[in-house]
Amino acid sequence: MKLKEQPxxxxxKTLWSxxxxxxxxxxxxxxxxxxxxxxxxxxxxxxxxxKFVMCLLPNKDVACGKCKxxxxxxxxxxxxxxxxxxxxxxxxxxxxxxxxxxxxxxxxSQGGRAKITLIADAHHMNTAAANALLKTxxxxxxxxxxxxxxxxxxxxxxxxxxxxxxxxxxTPSNIEAVDWLKQQITDQEDPQSLAIAAGNCPLLAxxxxxxxxxxxxxxxxxxxxxxxxxxxxxxxxxxxxTKLGETEVIGYLREVSTMLIKHLLINPQPSxxxxxxxxxxxxxxGKEVAHQQMLLSLMRFxxxxxxxxxxxxxxxxxxxxxxxxxxxxxxxxxxxxx
Length: 338
Prior knowledge:
Elements: H1 13-24, E1 31-35, H2 42-54, H3 68-71, E2 81-84, H4 95-105, E3 115-119, H5 127-138, E4 144-150, H6 158-161, E5 165-168, H7 174-182, H8 191-197, H9 202-211, H10 213-228, H11 234-244, H12 246-265, H13 275-285, H14 291-313, H15 320-332
Parallel strand pairs: 1-4, 1-5, 2-3, 3-4
């Protein structure tokens, strides 16, 4: 994804400033867990900070991009910045990847600075990989820093979380997200619609624009609205989910339940909610049960969605269609129309 601006982005600057201060005072922690919503730029942020740490001639608090260390490794990246992610064709970060990381951290830095590890979507580590990483966290080597990046930090073992300094990547305001998107997209694309659809997560919004995901999301929201009002069946909705991809649809359910909980707790500005979302919100607001009971039901549903995401990421080979069908049945029980 080619960007017209490099991190730290406007909503990341406070977090960047805090890390920079720790670096300047030589108080960087051995391990960090950076959490926050998908599409807020956690990976880009951590990668940019790693480059800054490696830089020999930083431009104040960012890498110069011109020194020997900035140029070392070319397009493939600095050899002392080790990136761990889910490999193509796999669902998990495996123990072999963590063992290889541990071996690399024992070797001398090629750039003469530090060795930094970035573990993207760290919640995808399987149990064996997490246990192997725990040993590395418990026995750190000097001048090594590990950044775990995740939008589902609760899926990580408590033993891993407890050994990391926790940083939360903020989600920008709607105005901030729209302003950033205006610099990245064409005049034919609507930054407000994209920002709303992505919950003001700019990188997610940009991905929706590039992939056509916005149309898929709106198509599913329309079908979910029909299911909520009793105008379509669960099986018809499951059929659409299979077409769009069960993993993506579970993400949509997570986002829409988050939106409903948020907007039932507060009164949203009209500009902060998309038309299909607004229809769903009105359907739930019109329910003839206690407001508090509806919120509790939605919160329980949200927890079930998170558990479903964890099951899909597990190595137990769950059936995605059955998981989605179960979630949609539970959704249909949130409100019954005559």
